[in-house]
Amino acid sequence: MSRFDKFRYIYEHIINEDLSERKFDCLCVQFSKLVYHRVIGCKYVEGAKDYLNKYHYRFPFFIVSGTPHNEMHAITKARGIFKYFKGIYGSPTTKRVWIKRIIEEQKLDPAKIVFVGDALSDYDAAKEHDIIFIGRIKNAQENVFKNKEIDLVVNNFYELDNYISQFVF
To answer: pLDDT tens across 74-92, in order?
Structure first.
């Protein structure tokens, strides 16, 4: 669920107040600033930068996120990783729609796509398109993918690299 939908849901179902367009816009701007600065300053997932450096020239990488489209572009540019991705896509368009569009526009075989994600919405989008899904969880984080038909769960990108390198020559 995008943050836009979350704000509306919280006001309607939890706070039980009307959410004016002005207040909604203000919340979106404030939240965007907070997210941007926090993400720019956070550490990479262990092994992620090495993984991108190692494989970006061999595989077309895409980001499909619930974060707003323009914000994802700004974040990846500020972090110096924009160049690693063939495409970066965000909300308000859903992950399911973006994946379908990428498959069609890039003429990709879903059986040869791997989606690495950390949310159930990632899992759902991958499974809808019969894409291999690899869940990434933190060691201390509860596994949100338990009881799901999942291809692999990893804690970091070194684990992913060990798995992928079995299939890459």
So the answer is: 999 999 999 999 999 998 8
d(CA 152, CA 100): 22
pLDDT tens for each residue of 27-50: 988 988 888 889 998 999 999 999
Beta carbons of 115 and 133 less than 8 angstroms apart = yes
* Residue keyed to tokens 């262990």: 46
Q: Any idea where the domains of the chain sit in the sequence?
A: 3-41, 48-164
Q: Which helix (H) or strand (E) holds 98?
A: helix 95-106
For residue 151, the SS3 value is coil
- Both structure tokens of 160: 């992913």
pLDDT, position 92 = 86
ω into 92 cis (within 30 of 0): yes
Please give the model's pTM, rounded to 2 decimal places: 0.85
Tokens of 26: 């203000």
CATH for 48-164, among 3.40.50.1000, 1.25.10.10, 3.10.180.10, 3.20.20.140? 3.40.50.1000
Task: Write the DSSP symbol of residue 156.
Answer: S
